[in-house]
Design goal:
InterPro entries: ArsR-like_HTH, HTH_ArsR_DNA-bd_dom, HTH_Metal-responsive_Reg, WH-like_DNA-bd_sf, WH_DNA-bd_sf. By secondary structure, the protein is mainly α. Helices cover 61% and strands 11% of the residues. A hairpin with a 2-residue loop joins strand 1 and strand 2. It is globular, with a radius of gyration of 15 Å.
Length: 109
Amino acid sequence: MQTVTHSSVLAQFGYALSDPTRARILLALRDAAAYPSDLAELIGVSRQSLSNHLACLRGCGLVVAVPEGRRMRYELADPRLGDALSNLLGVVLAADPAHCADSAGTGCC
């Protein structure tokens, strides 16, 4: 049975994935926990931009900050998110890429 809560959670997840930088952060954290400076370098964004995206992902409940001395290490909030991201990526890659790549801007994506 689907509830409003379930649809809200999925909408938050979709919002988090709707931004390419946030998607790249989640995919990087799927592989391993990381420090913000390392993530910023890996993804190619400023630390300020990364900080804003991490705040969004924390607000959505998708990542957590783990204190390590004076530093914070970020990881997925639940290990099952890594599996979910891998499964979702597999489904998206199996879909018709031409559907969402509408150059006229009339596609779904």
